[in-house]
TrEMBL record:
Entry's family note: Belongs to the short-chain dehydrogenases/reductases (SDR) family.
Native source species: Paenibacillus sabuli
UniProt cross-references to InterPro entries, sorted A to Z: KR_dom, NAD(P)-bd_dom_sf, SDR, SDR_fam
Residue ranges of domain Ketoreductase in the record: 4-193
One Gene Ontology molecular-function label: oxidoreductase activity
Keyword RNA-binding listed: no
Keywords from the UniProt entry: Oxidoreductase
Protein name per its UniProtKB record: SDR family oxidoreductase
Length: 256
């Protein structure tokens, strides 16, 4: 992977940061994207450069089409092209709420950040990937998103992500002949500090909700993404990969 460049949205902290560190260990140059976390983005860039790869940090909110376009153009200009796009960023409202109780602005923000912004960023970067006849696009969903079941009190977020499932599969077919793969990673309920922890760091800890028995970590997600980005993973495209430890967040809600 040496010499490849990855743009990871929402990567100053959390799962995006874990992914950036993992891809850097694989030899990738990294573009960090953030909205408010300028200090954390700068610190991560310094850490990545200390590992011997190039790094840049760009502020942009992918829920805003104009900022999305600027992010793509600036990333390509500064790094000479983007080979890997990891669409990690996406707004989420943790409070459970009936659809009728969402504000109009919340509906627009969730759909723009989780679906439209992802599509627009893909669209801007596909030209360069096609020209190089190589590309890796990773979308983020949620556990069991590929089944498109009802998820009460998560209507807007679920609709945006399940729409992204269909887009992932369609784009994978359309871009396969250009050497571009498109897949979706669906994390389990990985919260707080665990988003930046390693598997070793949670060994011995218990998560009673997860069938696997231990908490999920950022490393679990980053390892899956790293595998999908490898050159020899080019036969894997259009897939929706659950990385959940066996947890089914939707079915648990329906039972409750």
């Amino acid at each position: 992977m040496k010499g490849k460049t990855a743009l990871i949205t929402g990567s100053a902290k959390g799962l995006g940061k874990s992914t950036a560190l993992h891809l850097a260990r694989m030899g990738c140059n990294i573009v960090i994207n953030y909205v408010h976390s300028e200090r954390e983005a700068g610190q991560l860039c310094a850490e990545l450069e200390a590992r011997g790869v190039r790094a840049a940090a760009i502020q942009a909110d992918i829920a805003d089409p104009e900022q999305t376009e600027r992010l793509a153009e600036q990333a390509e200009r500064e790094m000479g092209g983007i080979d890997i796009l990891v669409n990690n960023a996406g707004p989420f409202i943790r409070e459970r709420r009936l659809f009728a109780n969402y504000a109009r602005e919340e509906i627009l923000g969730l759909v723009s950040g989780n679906l439209l912004g992802v599509m627009l960023l893909d669209h801007k970067l596909l030209t360069g990937m096609r020209a190089r006849n190589w590309g890796r696009i990773i979308h983020f969903g949620f556990g069991h998103a590929g089944e498109a079941r009802a998820w009460p009190q998560r209507a807007v977020y679920a609709a945006a992500k399940t729409g992204l499932v269909s887009f992932t599969k369609t784009l994978a077919v359309e871009e396969a002949s250009y050497g571009i793969t498109v897949n979706m990673i669906c994390p389990g309920d990985i919260r707080g500090a665990n988003k930046e922890r390693t598997i070793d760091e949670v060994q011995g800890e218990t998560d009673e909700e997860a069938p696997r028995g231990r908490p999920g970590t950022g490393e679990d997600i980053a390892r899956a993404i790293g595998f999908l980005c490898e050159a020899r993973s080019d036969f894997i495209t259009g897939n929706i990969l659950d990385v959940t430890g066996g947890l089914d967040p939707i079915r648990g809600t329906l039972k409750g």
